[in-house]
Design brief:
heterotrimer; A alpha+beta; B alpha+beta; C mainly alpha; A: alpha+beta; Translation Initiation Factor IF3; 41% strand; elongated; C: 61% helix
Chain lengths: 104, 157, 291
């Protein structure tokens, strides 16, 4: 399955548009990680725990989007966009969506 | 300690109310979403921008759909517990799925009123609103927007 | 180019599982964590209580003690003086640390009770004193309460009470609870409950003192006999509720005495007549009042 945020894939031709597909997930880290991040906020620097959290969640969101694309018979998702929102404290929502297409 | 027991009892009552009413409302909403998705299946929603001249008989028109949905007390409490242990917050996933699909449907409704049959370059925005004192949100807003296009040259815009 | 709009299957972006199962799992986990935290914090407080200076305890207790004591009559002062001298006699045998200072108070009410509280203040109520058959039993009672002070049980109980108040404030989300007020609230002083293991430890200490002082332990049995009768006849809120069942205490005392080779029976000395008179007079007066 080809995932791209291009409109047109070079050297390929879109034969069918199969509509919008989306994948989303809400994830949270346990309290210990939240506390560590709180401490890290004093000194600055990368919050490794949260980087991991968002990365895992993003991967899962893409995975779910792929599942939807597969279910409608597409072989690629083009024009993919991500959005992140904090739904509740300590949890992050990752959302990925794009156009499911059949490429030739 | 009487006050403590009262507070515990009140919380349990809210949890039970939240559980039963929330579950009922969610089921009803999902049924309505499925039914309307069938109704608007002929309006295509596409995330790409590229259109061809033959696609459109008229210049496009921006259509939007938005919705604010709240999660029930039970699910909010469940999410709070979940953030202690970490992992997937399933109770908010359902909420967001409902909100997105509802927003897209409302956008399609607007497109239908314009006699359009395709929506290009759909974008979705999510915002958590009405933060309360404890920092837990009760509701999300989802906005869906795109450009509606009609292939038939009649009525509407 | 072809455009289609196929149906996307449900349940990819959310799960349809019943949330009650997840709720039960998470809630029991959270409760387990809270219980563990309370236990850990409690142990930490127990351990750290020995670093709380005794002088601070005294300062904390002073206003409440004044209020509770009221203005005693000369007769009451006499009884208190007697109790104090008895306590002073046995305190060298207790192995109290230098900073600890024991102060005895006599309260003229029917309550069948003896209370050890913060700052080494021990309250003996007439209700209990008039039932004690001998000075030996009184010595056992005093040694028991002094052992509580020696082992810092009152301050441990107080810090536990403060911990629970704090936890309650955190759990119920009340931000307006005055945390500094946790230690100064006077209502908490009156009924500091001790745990069963603390009572057992105090009993053991007291028994040892009794043996050292009289070379026999009959006073303990006399005290327990009084408590046994009390428990079966009166149901009032008193400190004996938290004490291990009296029969168990008797059995454990016999066991300890046997193991150490201590005598269970021996000569007992009575309380001085002057003191008995004061107590008895009050007693008959209160009966006249009642009937």
């Amino acid at each position: 399955m080809l995932i791209s945020n291009l409109e047109i894939i070079p050297g390929k031709e879109i034969t069918q548009h199969l509509g919008l597909v989306q994948g989303s997930t809400v994830r949270s880290k346990h309290v210990g990680r939240d506390l560590m991040a709180g401490l890290k906020n004093i000194f600055g620097g990368e919050l490794v725990g949260y980087t991991e959290l968002l990365q895992e969640a993003r991967e899962e969101a893409v995975e779910r989007m792929k599942q939807q694309a597969q279910a409608v018979g597409a072989n690629a998702v083009v024009n993919v966009r991500f959005s992140t929102s904090s739904v509740t404290q300590g949890a992050a929502e990752l959302f990925a969506y794009g156009s499911a297409v059949i490429l030739r | 300690m009487g006050q403590f027991q009262f507070e515990i009892g009140f919380s349990i009552l809210l949890l039970l109310l939240g559980y039963f009413f929330g579950r009922h409302a969610e089921k009803r909403h999902f049924n309505s979403i499925r039914q309307r998705e069938e109704e608007y299946r002929d309006i295509l929603s596409i995330a790409s921008k590229v259109t061809t001249a033959e696609d459109s008989a008229k210049p496009g028109m921006l259509v939007t759909g938005s919705v604010v949905i709240s999660v029930d007390y039970f699910k909010r409490f469940l999410a709070l517990l979940r953030t202690i242990f970490g992992g997937r917050v399933t109770s908010y996933e359902t909420l967001l799925d409902r909100a997105r699909r509802e927003a897209i449907l409302r956008m399609k409704e607007e497109a239908r009123s314009l006699n359009a049959d395709r929506i290009f370059n759909i974008k979705l925005e999510t915002a958590s609103i009405s933060k309360n004192a404890a920092g837990n949100i009760g509701s999300v807003e989802v906005l869906a927007y795109g450009t509606a296009i009609s292939r038939v040259n009649q009525g509407g815009f | 180019m072809i455009y289609r709009n196929p149906k996307i299957p449900e349940g990819i972006n959310y799960s349809n599982a019943n949330p009650v199962k997840e709720f039960a799992l998470l809630a029991s986990g959270a409760i387990a964590i809270i219980i563990m935290l309370i236990y850990l914090l409690g142990s930490l407080l127990d351990w750290s209580s020995k670093f709380i200076p005794f002088a601070y305890e005294q300062e904390l207790a002073a206003p409440w003690v004044e209020e509770f004591k009221g203005t005693p009559s000369t007769q009451q002062n006499e009884v208190a003086k007697y109790l104090q001298s008895l306590a002073d006699d046995i305190s060298p045998l207790m192995g109290l640390s230098d900073e600890v200072e024991i102060t005895l108070h006599y309260i003229d009410t029917d309550t069948v009770n003896g209370v050890a509280t913060l700052g080494g203040n021990i309250f003996i109520f007439r209700g209990l004193l008039e039932k004690l058959p001998s000075e030996n039993a009184l010595t056992m009672l005093l040694a028991h309460e002094m052992a509580h002070v020696k082992l810092r049980h009152p301050v441990k109980a107080l810090s536990k009470g403060a911990l629970f108040t704090l936890l309650y404030a955190v759990l119920s989300g009340q931000n307006n609870t005055d945390v500094s007020g946790l230690f100064s609230g006077t209502s908490q002083f009156a009924f500091l409950g001790f745990s069963r293991s603390q009572e057992q430890a105090a009993d053991d200490e007291a028994l040892l003192v009794l043996q050292k002082y009289y070379q026999h332990t009959q006073g303990a049995f006399e005290l327990f006999t009084v408590l046994l009768n009390e428990n079966s006849t009166i149901e009032t809120i008193n400190i004996f509720n938290s004490h291990p069942a009296v029969k168990k205490r008797i059995a454990s005392t016999i066991r300890t005495a046997k193991v150490k080779g201590w005598k269970i029976k021996g000569e007992v000395s009575l309380m001085p007549d002057s003191i008995v008179n004061i107590i008895e007079k009050k007693h008959s007066k209160s009966i006249n009042d009642t009937y």
